[in-house]
Amino acid sequence: MEGVIDPEVLWACTTCRACEAECPVFISYVDKIIDMRRYLIMERAEFPSELQQAFQCLESTMNPWGFPPEERGAWANGLDVPLIGEKPDADYLLWVGCMPSFDDRAKKVTRAVAELFIEAGLSFAILGPEEQCTGDPARRAGNEYLFQMYAAANIEILNNYGVDKKKIVTICPHCFNTLKNEYPDFGGKYEVVNYVEVLSDLLRRGKLRPSERVDQRVAYHDSCYLGRHNDIYEAPRQVLRAIPGLTLLEAAEHHDRGMCCGAGGAQMFKEEEQGDERVSNRRTMQLLATSPQAVGSNCPFCMRMLTDGLADAEREEVKPVDIAELLHQSVIGAKKQEEATAEA
């Protein structure tokens, strides 16, 4: 649609669906924008140059950053986390995702989630080196061929392990959305939950008992792919409210009116289009308006963008944290302290 829609408009979209939440006549915009991206990539090979590296890494290493596939399960070193082949009767398959597997900051969150699951006695296993990218970055960027290649390969792996008869629990909301809402179109129908839902349920059933106080004022940030895309707002807040001493803060823009961190829609892998202010910086300022001591999130992409936003605002004394880390501090931290006291 040359002369009607500028390519900058298409490539600036973060697929956060805020426009759809606001639209008074319920027009769906995001699917049309992604369709036009598909045309530019698949028919005309026109796309931001930065995406080329992500596409090449996805094709060669099965993740968008080019990390060695055999290191995908290295985050679990020292933990009693079995592979699904070693524990085929596990109730849950923990789908870790690319960033939670390779990014140093995100790996800390992954370990916190795994340790909480172990503490609660949850029966789970991972794919380890057999896990691949879900293809989410490729589909958001418009590379439909690459996405469908991943969908077919992953569905075959999951079905070989009988995961269609288990539950998949994800860490990354982007993996959650893709596995839950998009893989069924290709024959991959699974029961998929996000880790915040599992933690909330474990707390409700008394399997996790937070006891150590976490005296912090925490401004919570809703991730778009858990919130607006999948209407999951209360589970993460239930986790935070269960932590003694913690004060949950809400920005003026919250729930379905919350602002995107700026990383969705494959923006994580390219430079932002021209604008007066970075999306991540604007969202950070909204959260800082609550006078928090920490900014809480449950998405590795959000964590990265909010970390950068806090640095740009020169407010690095405000710490970006995942809600699993806060719960881990209250549950596991108290237990380790008791064990250390007993040994002494």
Verbal overview:
The chain is an alpha/beta fold and 344 residues long. It has 2 domains: 66-202, Rossmann fold (3-Layer(aba) Sandwich); 209-333, Rossmann fold (3-Layer(aba) Sandwich), CATH 3.40.50. Helix content is 45%, strand content 8%. It has helices at residues 7-12, 18-22, 30-43, 50-61, 98-102, 104-120, 136-141, 144-160, 173-182, 195-204, 234-241, 279-288, 300-312, 323-343; strands at residues 92-95, 124-125, 167-170, 191-194, 217-220, 247-249, 294-297, 319-322. It has a 4-stranded parallel sheet. Strands 6-5-7-8 form a 4-stranded parallel sheet, sandwiched between helices. Strand 5, helix 11 and strand 6 (247-249) form a beta-alpha-beta unit. Helix 12 (279-288) crosses helix 13. The longest helix is centred in the last third of the chain and has 21 residues, at 323-343. The protein is globular and about 70 Å long. The protein starts with 6 loop residues before the first helix and ends with a helix.
Major beta sheet, strand line-up: 2-1-3-4
Helix fraction, binned, reads 40-55%
Calculate Rg over CA atoms.
20 Å
Number of domains: 2
Largest sheet, described in full?
4 strands, parallel
Give the CA-CA distance, first to last residue: 72 Å
Helix and strand topology:
Elements: H1 7-12, H2 18-22, H3 30-43, H4 50-61, E1 92-95, H5 98-102, H6 104-120, E2 124-125, H7 136-141, H8 144-160, E3 167-170, H9 173-182, E4 191-194, H10 195-204, E5 217-220, H11 234-241, E6 247-249, H12 279-288, E7 294-297, H13 300-312, E8 319-322, H14 323-343
Helix pairs in contact: 6-14, 10-11, 12-13
